[in-house]
Structure prediction request, 131 residues.
Amino acid sequence: MNSPQYRRILYRSLATGNHGRRDLSPILAVSRLNNGLDGISGLLWTDGHRYVQLLEGPPDSVALTFARIARDPRHEAIEIADDSVATERVFGDWTMADLAGGADEDNRERLMAALRDAPAAVRRAFEEAAT
Prediction:
């Protein structure tokens, strides 16, 4: 029996305007609904000025979700840091985990705990953003 294959896209972008943190709740609400329907899991981090997000799930669903995100006017300068295929998910059943950025040590500890079993490239991208 073949293991399922999941596509994993990790990207960074810049928030447009100065409303990045205010947009987090509506983004997460829609993401969790859509991702649950599409079989996608992941993590979204923002400090209000930058976003780092990991999407993982069925290849077609991830492609369509990323295309929709890329058209979203709330961010710009999208840079794909990793686009790979895996046989296991990093974030399991989390339709979209979130961490607000900043110098808060509790946030950093939560981020590191959530990323404990993530591939090195994924951990590095979120660690760099959180510092």
Notes: The mean pLDDT is 81. DSSP finds four helices and five strands in the chain. Strands lie at 6-15, 41-46, 50-57, 75-86, 97-100.
